[in-house]
Amino acid sequence: MKNLxxxxxxxxxxxxxxxxxxxxxxPVELQLWTWYLSPKFDTYIKDTLAAFEKANPGIKVRWxxxxxxxxxDFIASVNLGNAPDVVNLNIDETQKAAQNGxxxxxxxxxxxxxxxATYYPQSVRNFTSGGKVYAYPWYGWLNEGVLLYxxxxxxxxxxxxxxxxxxEMLSYAKTIKDKTGAYGWVPALKDPNTASFLxxxxxxxxxxxxAGGKAAFNSPAHAALLGQYVNLYKGGYIPEDxxxxxxxxxxxELYAQNRVAMIVGGPQALTRIKDTNPTLYGKTVVTEAPLxxxxxxxxxxxxxxxxxxxxHPREAAKLAAFLSNNANQLAFAKxxxxxxxxxxxxxxxxxxxxxxxxxxxxxxxxxxxxxFINPGYKAPGNSDDLYxxxxxxxxAAVLGKKTPQQALNDAAAYWNANMKK
Amino acid sequence: xxxxxxxTLMSYAFLAPALLLLLAFTFYPLAYGTYxxxxxxxxxxxxxxxGPKWIGLENFRTLLADPLFLTSLGNSxxxxxxxxxxxxxxxxxxxxxxxxxxxxALFRAAYYVPVVTSISLAAVMWEWVYNREGTLxxxxxxxHLLPRGEAFGWLNNEATAFFAVMLVTFxxxxxxxxxxxxxxxxxxxxxxxxxxxxxxxxPWQRFWRxxxxxxxxxxxxxxxxxTIAALRVLEEVLVLTGGGPLNSTYTALxxxxxxxxxxxxxDYGLASAAGLVVxxxxxxxxxxxxxxxHxxxxxxx
Lengths: 421, 301
What we know:
The structure holds 2 protein chains of 2 kinds. Chain A is of the alpha+beta class. Chain A has 18 helices and 11 strands. Chain A is 48% helix and 13% strand. In chain A, the strands form 3 sheets. In chain A, strands 1, 2, 3, 4, 7 and 11 form a 6-stranded mixed sheet that branches. In chain A, strands 9-8-10 form a 3-stranded antiparallel sheet. In chain A, strands 5-6 form a two-stranded antiparallel ribbon. Chain B has a domain at 54-117 and 161-300: Orthogonal Bundle (MetI-like fold).
C-alpha cells in the first residue's frame, strides 16, 4: 500500500513538469474573422496564414469568413465567451465598436511609433478614437479613385474631354442627358448606412464639424451645394432610384446598358462591367477622377481589430500586424485592385506599370494613393440614428419637401441634440 | 369525470416535452423580452459585461418623443387596410376554385406559388414591375391611362410606394389564406348549398347568405392571422423601399429591427419596448376582431 502511494506521488511529481512543458508547447489558437473574402480570395488568405504560422511556430490560426452577419456574430460570440481574436471591420464599424468599448486599443499592443511608420498617418487617424488607435489599417479603396466613361456617349453629347472638377461634372451631367438621353452620372446622395452626402461637402472644402466637435454642415455654402444636386434631381438628370438604392449599384447597372455615361469610383466598378458587358468594357476610358475645390479624395479602408474579449491579444496583434504589413497588402493588390494603406506602397513597382487593360490602368492610377484614404468625416457617436436623420433630410430636400437650408438646419440640430461622445 | 393520479401524471408526462420546448423557446424569450423593455441594455453596457439595468418607463417615454417611431406605428396601423381586401379576395377565389373542374388543381397550385417564393426573388420581380421603365408603366401607357412623359417609379413616389408594397403583401398572402378557406369550405355540407339553389337563390346570395355565415370561424382565424401579419410586416419593406420615400413605408417592426440590429450601437431595451407597443396594439385589435365576429354571430342567431 505504502509503495503504491509512493509510486503515485512519484508519478504525480514526474507528470507535473511534463504537463507544464506540454502546456507551454501547446500552440495558441487564434480565430480570425474576415468579411466577404471567401471563396474568391481563399488562396491568398490561406497562403498568407501559412506563412504566418511558419514564422510563428507557437501560433495556429483558424480562419472564418463571415458575411452579412459578422457584427451580430461578433456580439453573440462575446456573450458566449468565445470571441474571435482578430476581426475585419470597416472604418465606421471600428469607430462604433471602439466607442462602445468592444475593442482593445492596438496602440497599447504595438508602439504608436511603429504604427505611424508603417501606415499612412491619415489611415491611422481613421481608426483613432479618444486619442487611441483601435485597429491595424488594412486594404482600402478610393471613392473618387478613377473616372471611367463611355467615350461614345461623351462624343454624342459633343464633349471632347473628361470633366476636371466636380462642378464640371454637374454641368456634364446636364449636357449628356439633354443630348443623348443617357444619365451623365449617379452621385451618392444617400447611400444606406453612411452619410454619403457629407463626402461632397468635404470634397468642396466645407467643414462637417466645428472646432468644438458640433455638427456645422448647415452654412449657406453647404446649402448652396446641396441645392445644385437638388436641382439636378428635379430636372431629371439623376436616376430617381438614387434616393432609394446605393448609387454605385445603380451606376454599374445602368452603365453596362449604355444608360449612364460616367462612373466615379474604384477599379471594382470595372470588374463588374467586364462581367456584364465585355464590349463596352473594352471601349471604356479610364482617367483621373475630377475633384472638388479642396482637391481631396474620399475613400475607406478595412481594419483588423482585436476584441476586448480576445484571450490572446499579444498573439492576435502579431497576426493583425502581419496581415496588414506592406508586403502582404501588396500581394493582395496583385490579386485584386485594392489600395494598400501602408506607406511603403507609394513606391511599389507594382503601381508603376501601365498597360492597356482598363482594370490594370485603374489599379496603377489608384494603388499608390492610399494617403488619400479618408471618409471625409469622422463617425459621430450614435452614428446610426444620426446618419438616418441626415439621409432623411437630404431626401426631403431632393424630393422638394424642404429647402436645402431647412433640411441641413434640421439635420444639424438633430445631430447636436443626439450625438453621443 | 375524475382521473386517477396515475392518469394525470401520465398525461403530463406526455405533455412535458412539448411544454418544455414551449417554455424554453416561447415563454422564456417572451418574458425576457418584456423585461428588457423596461431596462437600459445597450452596446456600451454589454461590452463592459454589464447586464440590463431597470429604468421603468423611460424607454416608452423615449418612444413617444420620437417622431420616427410615431410615424412608423401610424404606418403599421395604416397597413391594416390590406386585411379586408386580402380576406375577401382569397375567400372569393377559394369559392371559385373549390369546384371540381378538370385541371382546377393547377389553379390552386398557381395561386399558392407566391407563398413559397423567397422574398428576395420576389423583390427583383416587383422591382421590374414598379420601375420607371417597368412593366406597370408600360401597361398603363399602352392602355393610354398614363402619358409616357409622366411615367414614374412606383416605389420612389411618396403617394404610391405604400400601396405598391401593400400589393406585394397581398400577392404573398393571397394563396396562403385561400388554402385555409378551401379547407374551411370542405366543412360546409353540400345540402345547404343545394337547398339554397332550389329556393332560387342567386350565386351572389348564396355566397353572402350561406357561405360567409358558415365560414365565420375560418374568417375570424384568417383575419386575425392577417391582422397580426400586417402589423408585423417587415421583409417586403426592407427589400423594396428600405422604409422610404420620406419614411412613408417605414413600419413599426422596421423601427424595432433598426434599434436591435444597428451593430455595436444596438439598444435592446428600446427595441423591446417598441416591440411591446406593437404587441399591445395587436392584442387590442385581436379583441376587437373577436368582439365584432361574436356580435355578428349573436345577431344572426
